[in-house]
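Work Package 3 (structural annotation) set out to generate three-dimensional models for the target panel prioritized at the project kickoff. During this period the team completed the workflow that converts sequence records into discrete structure tokens, so that structures can be stored uniformly alongside our sequence database. As a representative example, we reproduce one entry of 170 residues exactly as it appears in the project archive.
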Amino acid sequence: MSSKRLLTTLAINGIEHELALEPRRTLLDALRHDLQLTGTKKVCDMGDCGACTVLVDGRAMYACLLLAVDCTDRQITTIEGLAQADELDPLQQAFIEADAFQCGFCTAGQIMSLKGLLNETPAPNDDQILRAVTGNLCRCGAYRNILKAGRLAADQVAHPEEARHADSTH
């Protein structure tokens, strides 16, 4: 039995996409299968691991728990939408500098969770950084470096001039 498809417009990474979707299609499946945005990972499909974290209106949310049709008129940002031209987002750069990934599978979800935190709290403390990634599992155990990357990015966002000066002195 086939469900009726609904014409849905999703604003993803600043681009509007018009899709005909079954009402039960998750945002995660629409991103990965309909739009080929595969940076958002499908792991547990139950909201337990955080690998599918995206930003919806600037807030970190699990794409596997959202219906795509419910995301009309909302701004969705995936890991593919963070870098601008050839310049990485401060969080992406911080993950490189802190060696905050091993296999890389959870990295996109970790970055998006921290991006959501930085959107709401530009100068978070360590407890807030830890809380932001609590819902993201890393099987490799890179948590210490993930927290370090969160601190680096928060410092860069809070003090962009100092970060730029430090980059130019290397």
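The mean pLDDT is 92.
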